[in-house]
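Extended Data, panel c. Modelled sequence:
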Amino acid sequence: MAHIALRPLTDADRDAAFQAVHDSRSAWPNAVVGDRPAFDGWADRDDVDAQVIVQDDDVVGIAAAMDRGGDREILLALVPGIGEEAPSEALRLLTAHEAERPLYACVAADDDPSHDLLARIGFVEHERDGEDVVYVLPPTLE
């Protein structure tokens, strides 16, 4: 398996990160980034913690957490054809980085790969919001 890591989004990464969001099959219902200026504006918000997903030395996606209505929500997008291990490892790294619980994720109802990925990590369906499904990673007892 290739080495997967997260690192903070830099200006040098923005083209590759935007392209990953643009090409990703996953929908980001709560982060509208239809063009590069919108992506830059979103990534520059104070409540967004955007990191690039790096496979070996290549930027293959973006992982982010943002405030949404008082809750912390995560987002993940990877270039198509990256394989099954990369999204799982990126999501595992992101949830480890974002220690706050509960942690939410919102995906399109027809995005079956994302539903499966979230379930593997421990997210459970929280509610349906129109065409989207909201998942939650609940707090754990220690």
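The radius of gyration is 14 Å. This feature is highlighted in the accompanying rendering.
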